[in-house]
Write a structure and sequence with these properties.
- Helices cover 64% and strands 6% of the residues.
- By secondary structure, the chain is mainly alpha-helical.
- It has one domain: Four Helix Bundle (Hemerythrin (Met), subunit A) (Up-down Bundle), CATH 1.20.120.
- It has a two-stranded antiparallel ribbon with strand order 1-2.
- A hairpin with a 5-residue loop joins β1 and β2.
- α1 runs antiparallel to α3 and α2 packs parallel to α3.
- The longest helix has 25 residues.
Length: 159
């Protein structure tokens, strides 16, 4: 994939996160575990971008966040990823998505991953946890967000 493809996929991811947050706001009482997963999605996105940019980790992987704090972090991460990916897309430097990033995981183990693999992981990780949130909300009698990619494209939420 190219950086421009990732720009599109991260635009979808942002839309899906916002749909999920809107469904949580509309529910009378969101299961604490579902809110925790949403906070985790967003903090993990921040963590991975910090790793790519060689910045220190600024928040825990599983933070305790309110719905309002999640919404604020969603705004921050949407802008941060869009800016980062736009810079990569406009560099015309071959292999920038092939660059290796060295980091320590949450267990303290040293790893090295390609930027492209990290970006793919961030997207799939978010989708995985949004599915869990949808399951938890439905099991609690709430209406989860409909975040299918094709739905977003069909309705022009993602170009």
């Amino acid at each position: 994939m190219h950086a421009k493809d990732f720009l599109r996929m991260f635009a979808y991811d942002d839309w899906a996160n916002r749909e999920c947050l809107a469904a949580m706001r509309a529910a009378n009482s969101v299961p604490a575990d579902a809110l925790g997963r949403m906070a985790h999605i967003l903090s993990a996105q921040k963590l991975w971008l910090e790793r790519i940019l060689k910045q220190p980790q600024s928040m825990p992987v599983w933070p305790s966040s309110t719905l309002h704090e999640c919404a604020a972090l969603a705004d921050e991460m949407s802008s941060a990823w869009r800016n980062y990916l736009a810079r990569v897309a406009n560099q015309f430097a071959p292999g920038s998505l092939d660059d290796k990033v060295e980091y320590r995981n949450s267990k303290g183990e040293l790893w090295s991953s390609r930027v492209e693999d990290i970006l793919t992981h961030v997207l799939l990780h978010s989708t995985y946890h949004r599915g869990q949130i949808a399951f938890q909300m439905r099991a609690s009698g709430m209406e989860p967000a409909y975040t299918d990619f094709i739905h977003a494209v069909r309705h022009g939420f993602v170009e």
